[in-house]
Amino acid sequence: MRYVIYGAGAIGGTIGARLFMAGHEVRLIARGAHLDTLQSHGLTYRSPEGTQVLDIPAAGHPAEVDWREDDVVFLTMKSQHTDAALTELERVAPPDTPVVCCQNGVANESMAARRFRRVYAMVVLLPASHLQPGEILHHATGLSAFLDAGCFPHGTDAVIETVCADLTGAGFSAVADPRPLRWKYAKLLQNLGNSLQAVCDAGREAREIMRLARNEALACYEAAGIDCASRDETAERQQGMVMGEIEGTE
């Protein structure tokens, strides 16, 4: 398989870097100054384990990729950019191209399924940042991310089993799961606290607001017939990730 990482920012850049270091063929799709730096100086991947400069081929548009039958696309852009990105991808990639929605929103898969025959949902727990062109900071050590995935809307197949095996071999924890969306909906519950953390101190009042927001979300899930992984399931699955310091960063 060759992995085409469509959106080589913090998430896509980390996945692409580690797959490349594990010996897999990778193509990055990026834009702007980030693309310029990737093409001129390579991708600088920094983690608690050290710094590597990787000469991964990079393009600015799907039309610049020499599409092959063994390609697998990872969508790693923000969800608000997915529709436009898929429109460009559909024009040049074969309709049987496997498309992995490596995004924590739950609307991307439906958009992809309107254009491609083989679509996969992947939940993302990967602490990384992208602040400078050409540079990715990956803040975890040990199990450096959790990237469970399955067919959309359910099931597994040989493609996603191979993808998860390759990701595991690259230092991630990735399980082929026949019900991937229940993990994505659980991740949305975890994300409820993001905006709260940005505006409030982590005190008793903030915890109470978070509790109320979570209960409201769970009530909405129940009314809509949406299943999600429990808190205990999520906590057990996410054991083993350790945050580490990257030399030269604060």
Describe this structure in words.
This protein is α/β, with parallel strands linked by helices and 250 residues long. The protein has 2 domains: 2-180, Rossmann fold (3-Layer(aba) Sandwich); 183-243, no CATH class. 39% of the residues lie in helices and 21% in strands. It contains 9 helices and 13 strands. The N and C termini lie far apart (37 Å).
The count of helical stretches stands at 9
What is the succession of H and E elements?
Answer: EHEHEEEEHEHEEEEEHHHHHE
Question: For the largest beta sheet, what order do the strands appear in spatially?
Answer: 5-2-1-6-7-8-12
Number of domains: 2
Proportion in β-strands: 15-25%
Major sheet size, sense and barrel closure: 7 strands, mixed
What is the H level of CATH, i.e. the homologous superfamily of the largest domain? NAD(P)-binding Rossmann-like Domain
Radius of gyration: 18 Å
Structural class: alpha/beta
CATH architecture of the largest domain: 3-Layer(aba) Sandwich
What coarse outline follows from CA principal-axis ratios?
globular
Strand segment tally: 13
N-to-C CA distance: 37 Å
Q: Please, what is the average pLDDT?
A: 95
